[in-house]
Q: What sequence folds into this?
């Protein structure tokens, strides 16, 4: 990427994970956006959009000099706040006013009236969304482990059928628990990778059985080999 990215994290346990700001440089290089089990609100100064959960990598094309600001929801919060099951937004970028909810359209219309539009919106979201942990946040935490629970074990522990767990994950995350676990595992691999570690050692630490399993996940989720993926992320 030829742009500048800044991020401010919110305190743990809140409805938002972070606020971020991206300013594209003079070159309009497509920015790689990896699936991360997150949902973001995007503001470009004119449009307020929702970046739905990605099932595979996408490339964002941003004009030279353009600024994009974002708010990232905590796991399982976006569906509640939007009032929309996330599977209908998977791999999509949709303007909030197009979701058909008057409350969301009003927020979008009021953004331009505020000097710090995303700060104003963040305050609204934090005030409107109660804190606390619900079942789907527990699911996210359990699947984020290096050795995540099986779907059957997780459903049994939560007192759900596997079919109900799948449906609720589709609504809360945009896809089922198995894909959620794979996305979280790939993100864990990227966080753990550093210059002193071999690719295989990092893969094992992240929860992969071997390098071949890592390569399969990387190819399915990003279209890249692990080596190509790491080179892209390092840019």
A:
């Amino acid at each position: 990427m030829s742009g500048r990215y800044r991020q401010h994290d919110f305190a743990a346990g809140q409805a938002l994970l972070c606020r971020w700001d991206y300013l594209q440089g003079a070159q309009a290089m497509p920015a790689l956006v990896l699936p991360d089990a997150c949902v973001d609100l995007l503001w470009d100064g004119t449009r307020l959009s929702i970046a739905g959960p990605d099932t595979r990598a996408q490339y964002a094309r941003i004009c030279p000099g353009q600024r994009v600001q974002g708010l990232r929801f905590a796991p399982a919060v976006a569906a509640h706040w939007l009032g929309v099951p996330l599977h209908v937004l998977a791999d999509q970028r949709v303007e909030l006013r197009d979701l058909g909810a008057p409350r969301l359209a009003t927020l979008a219309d009021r953004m331009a009236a505020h000097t710090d539009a995303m700060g104003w919106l963040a305050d609204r979201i934090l005030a409107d969304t109660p804190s606390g942990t619900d079942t789907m946040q527990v699911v996210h935490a359990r699947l984020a482990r290096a050795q995540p629970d099986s779907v059957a074990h997780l459903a049994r522990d939560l007192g759900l059928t596997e079919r109900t767990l799948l449906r609720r994950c589709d609504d809360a995350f945009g896809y089922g628990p198995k894909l959620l676990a794979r996305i979280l595992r790939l993100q864990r691999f990227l966080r753990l990778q550093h210059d002193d570690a071999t690719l295989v050692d990092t893969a094992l630490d992240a929860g992969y059985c071997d390098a071949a399993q890592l390569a399969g996940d990387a190819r399915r989720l990003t279209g890249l080999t692990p080596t190509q993926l790491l080179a892209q992320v390092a840019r």
User: Anything to note?
Assistant: The beta strands are 4-9, 16-23, 31-33, 40-43, 48-51, 58-60, 67-73, 93-95. Residues 177-192 form the longest helix (16 residues). The mean pLDDT is 93.
